[in-house]
Amino acid sequence: MKHLLMATAATALATSAAFAAGHASEAKVGVILGFTGPIESLTPMMGASAELALSEINDSGMFLDGVTLVPVRADSTCVDAAAATAAAERLVTTDGVVAIMGADCSGVTGAVLSNVAVPNGIPMVSPSATSPALSTAEDNGLFFRTAPSDARQGEVLAGILADRGITEVAVTYTNNDYGKGLSDSFIANFEAGGGTVTLNAPHEDGKADYSAEIGALASAGGELLVVLGYSDQGGKGMIQAALDTGAFDTFMMGDGMYGDALLADLGADMEGSFGAVPWSQGAGADAFAAITEAAGVNGESSFTRESYDAAALIAMAMMAGGEATSEAVAANLLAVANAPGEKILPGELGKAMEILAGGGDVDYVGATNVELIGPGEAAGTYRYYTVTGGAYETVDFK
């Protein structure tokens, strides 16, 4: 009888704990981004955009009978896998987050996924980790992303060069998972279309002098230099060294190079350079621009749309599952992201809560025309831009 009573009590405690998790007064969502490191000029806007989505839902008063969504920030550093893992562990074990909006850069995202998220059953929605390797990562159905894979970006970049009639380029990439994956994708697509890469050379972030790397690339030649790096670190350093030495004066840039800080420092000397970055147009993008302007958030920075959408999807998945738990996020995120259901734009998250509370379905359009395909990743579109008059000017959407 004593053993029966103890078992009954243990079952009751477990049931009570599960009920408390699903009906707590607040639900914490981790926001892990590189607030320091090679994209630190971008992450404040990304974090603010994600938190704007959570605030919008809180303000509606419709989330799970009064549960408050609480964002908890952590620094991924973008490049230090050990630091990112430790930061994510704190989010889970100390702060008790039920899901993670992040991480940002591909290498640290993979580390957090394998070392923290999967062992603890915590779903992640990255707004900017684009390495093709993440498409096949062992994730137990816990990993999603609102930015498209670099398998797609490589195709887009090669297509832009073909449109311009450029057939010979030199390439430099940041020496990590993101840079290597994007470089491989771009070169495969470029060479398949008849293009020639004179030299494909990695660069390290955080160096004071890139003249040796630029010297090797200049010797190899090419009509321009393709820079697949980070706007606050080695990618910027490579462009600066090229401009200083006269090795190259025109650059094609991957998504990690898009940033206002880069133009503020070098834009006057980069006239005619161009690149691509995940972007969108249409009603969702217009609605996002309106709500970020009203909130005082720079929504025109890169990956802000994807960050808003990532946080919104996490919250809507909880609402669809009827509880603020990791299990609800993982089980319902694809359903709220895709058809069928009523289409939801930025600024309409309260409406989504009402529909879900009534047992209806939503098809989240969001700021990026969300459509999650394959293993929970975005199909995505890209903004093809040029640097004109020291500013980014849209050419087309790809």
Mean pLDDT: 93
Number of strands: 16
**Which topology of the largest domain does CATH recognise?**
Rossmann fold
Spans of at least 5 consecutive residues whose pLDDT stays below 50 are 1-22
> What is the makeup of the main sheet?
7 strands, mixed
Estimated helix fraction? 40-55%
Distance between the termini: 69 Å
Question: Under the CATH scheme, which architecture of the largest domain would be assigned?
Answer: 3-Layer(aba) Sandwich
Name of the CATH class of the largest domain: Alpha Beta
Q: Enumerate how many helices there are, as a single number.
A: 13
**Which outline best applies?**
globular
Structural class: alpha/beta
Percent strand equals 15-25%
The CATH superfamily of the largest domain turns out to be Response regulator
Strand order of the largest sheet: 2-1-3-4-5-14-13
Q: Spell the H/E element sequence.
A: HEHEHEHEEHEHEHEHEHEHHHEHEEEEE
Number of self-contained structural domains: 2
The gyration radius over C-alpha positions equals: 22 Å
Describe this structure in words.
The chain is an alpha/beta fold. The protein has two domains: 25-149 and 282-378, Response regulator (Rossmann fold); 151-277 and 384-397, Rossmann fold. The protein is built from 13 helices and 16 strands. The strands form three sheets. It has a seven-stranded mixed β-sheet, with helices on both faces. β15 and β16 form a beta hairpin.
